Inverse folding.
């Protein structure tokens, strides 16, 4: 059949101009577009209808449209306007195809007034009709209807008045005989519940490799056995449906020729399995949660006491790791049960775990779960734990600071923000107050160079990043880095961080000034937090020692430990003055003298030009210090006489190799 594609303009305002067409797939496999008041046919089902907009920007005021037929069909049909809203396609699709409408008839799509609006204008109410013919329902000629001659399930005759079945399970024989249809190379058989849910489905066609299948299309005989490992019970007091259809191909698709369907109603004959009256009220952590505390238990609360609880944790999938949980305890009334995986379990976890929980009451009745059938019923909850993933060292670490704004991370393998997750900061009440500014990331190589200034691929071993705003308000804050916030390593060998929380206290920090003077040498000062201790290192050069130390004029030399002095709970400005002296006793000369250096005597004297040393050997090292330890000269002799300039009126320590003497100049 050749059908010309028609598009009819609808009587709507120009601001919301659109066309409507049914998108039908013919038995020959071609696609036709049929406008309202048109007709079409196929051997499958009523197709989708497209509302094609003239332009983008219209508002769709509804999620369903009513479809009715002259045969009594009436249903609200879901529409899909997502792609139109996103600007990808001009079509709004009325998804009739999902409803499996196969009855021939005249169908009407009801579009209410105002359903489509744009620019202050909207459509008027309209009823759009199509005449649909399902060719598998046509009679006359040589076309045959699907007619059952017999239908047996596990020996039960399903065509007797008031048929009933207890169950279907693996190995049950199925035999269907129909009035022969030579083209029907395959039958499908589907069992559905009273709620319309498919319980089991199978396809019966000739397969020489399976001795359990016998198909003779010439005689209309189709025989097989049930497969699968689950027994499906049909319960007393409920009516079920077995639906049989014929196909001219072993691949069901939109172009297949079909016969039927034929529905056989039957009653259930199995007593319902009796579950325990106890129900699972809650499971903590909730399904989908992520464990970040190695002491976390799985806690199950029941509505009534239960006698036993068993649990297996599995990673799922092929080759899954399964661990039986042995540390399971209950409350005194046996309504709350605690499964303790243990710190080692969580510390070594790097994946999602499915906890399969099975419980029985004192009568041995199973508590109904979310998986499994009857006595094998169990409850599942999925909990992720990635504590085996590495942490990232973040600077600043936990502590007190005046401003929370800039952070840095380092790793010799490479480090950076991953862009999978964004770290953020919460206050003491858990409210988010700032997030990491992902555009602030600056990465540096091992030499401290910004890698954006370098050519080629350069490994970033340090990354500095900021928050989107500085936090200066005093209070307790926590930087939360979700799992996979940071990438460690390279693109081809990368790890990601586990969930991390780092706590900070932002404070207004009063500071106290500490002055430090090294007498006749140098002076400096620094600030410490008021009320905090401060340790000052007073380490002298080699060969020298600390002589005295005063704090605000008071001698505190005896409190120096390992050349360091600690000021306790500094509350006001403090001044430290340190003096040094040569660590060894040495001879003092006025203007000249002799000093023994290894196997010889060297003469030291003063001249108008400085300090003169005679009888040196090439390579002798000569050092000159003030008596307070300040080095003013260090030279290596290249001849036997050396002269060193120095300010007059002072005493100097002259060291020749390891021999020392004081010289007054």
């Amino acid at each position: 059949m050749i059908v010309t594609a028609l598009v009819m303009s609808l009587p709507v305002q120009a601001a919301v101009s659109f066309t409507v067409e049914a998108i039908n797939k013919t038995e020959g496999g071609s696609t036709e577009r049929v406008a309202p008041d048109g007709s079409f046919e196929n051997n499958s089902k009523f197709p989708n209808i497209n509302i094609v907009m003239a332009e983008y920007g219209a508002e769709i005021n509804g999620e369903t449209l009513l479809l009715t037929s002259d045969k009594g069909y009436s249903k609200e049909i879901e529409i899909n306007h997502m792609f139109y809203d996103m600007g990808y396609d001009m079509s709004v699709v009325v998804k009739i195809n999902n409803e499996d409408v196969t009855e021939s008839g005249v169908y009407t799509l009801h579009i209410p007034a105002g359903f489509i609006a744009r620019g202050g204008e909207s459509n008027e109410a309209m009823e759009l009709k199509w005449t649909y013919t399902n060719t598998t329902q046509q009679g006359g000629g040589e076309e045959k209807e699907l007619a059952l001659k017999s239908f047996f399930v596990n020996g039960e005759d399903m065509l007797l008045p008031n048929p009933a079945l207890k169950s279907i399970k693996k190995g049950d024989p199925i035999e269907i005989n129909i009035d022969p249809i030579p083209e029907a190379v395959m039958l499908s058989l589907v069992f559905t519940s009273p709620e319309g849910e498919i319980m089991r489905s199978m396809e019966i066609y000739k397969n020489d490799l399976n001795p359990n299948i016998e198909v003779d299309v010439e005689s209309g005989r189709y025989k097989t056995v049930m497969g699968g490992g689950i027994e499906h019970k049909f319960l007393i007091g409920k009516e079920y449906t077995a639906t049989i259809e014929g196909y001219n191909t072993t691949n069901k698709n939109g172009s297949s020729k079909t016969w039927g369907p034929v529905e056989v109603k039957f009653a259930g004959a199995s007593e319902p399995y009796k579950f325990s009256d106890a129900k699972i009220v809650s499971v903590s952590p909730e399904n989908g949660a992520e464990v970040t505390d190695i002491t976390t238990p799985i806690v199950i609360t029941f509505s009534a006491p239960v006698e036993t609880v068993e649990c297996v944790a599995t990673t799922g999938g092929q080759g899954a790791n399964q661990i039986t949980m042995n540390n399971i305890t209950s409350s005194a009334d046996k309504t709350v049960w605690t499964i303790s995986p243990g710190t080692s379990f969580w510390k070594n976890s790097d994946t999602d775990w499915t906890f399969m929980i099975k419980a029985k009451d004192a009568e041995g009745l199973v508590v109904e779960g979310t998986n499994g059938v009857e006595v094998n019923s169990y409850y599942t909850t999925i909990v992720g734990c990635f504590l085996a993933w590495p942490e990232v060292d973040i600077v600043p670490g936990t502590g007190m600071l005046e401003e929370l704004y800039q952070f840095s991370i380092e790793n010799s393998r490479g480090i950076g923000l991953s862009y999978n997750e964004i770290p953020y900061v919460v206050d003491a009440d858990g409210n988010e107050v700032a997030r990491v500014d992902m555009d602030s990331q600056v990465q540096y190589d091992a030499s401290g160079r910004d890698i954006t200034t370098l050519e080629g691929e350069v490994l970033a071993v340090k990354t500095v990043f900021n928050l989107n705003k500085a936090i200066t308000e005093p209070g307790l804050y926590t930087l939360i880095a979700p799992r996979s916030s940071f990438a460690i390593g390279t693109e081809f060998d990368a790890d990601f961080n586990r969930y991390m929380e780092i706590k900070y206290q932002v404070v207004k920090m009063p500071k106290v000034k500490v002055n430090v003077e090294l007498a006749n040498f140098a002076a400096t000062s620094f600030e410490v937090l008021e009320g905090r201790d401060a340790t000052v290192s007073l380490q002298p050069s080699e060969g020298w020692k600390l002589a005295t130390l005063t704090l605000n004029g008071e001698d505190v030399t005896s409190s120096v430990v390992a050349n360091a002095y600690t000021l306790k709970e500094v509350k006001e400005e403090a001044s430290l003055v340190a003096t040094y002296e040569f660590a060894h006793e040495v001879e003092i000369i006025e203007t000249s003298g002799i000093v023994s250096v290894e196997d010889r005597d060297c003469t030291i004297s003063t001249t108008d030009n400085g300090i003169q040393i005679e009888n040196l050997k090439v390579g002798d090292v000569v050092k000159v210090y003030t008596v307070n330890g300040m080095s003013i000269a260090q030279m290596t002799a290249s001849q036997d006489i050396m002269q060193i300039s120095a300010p007059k009126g002072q005493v100097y320590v002259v060291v020749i190799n390891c021999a020392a003497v004081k010289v007054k100049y």
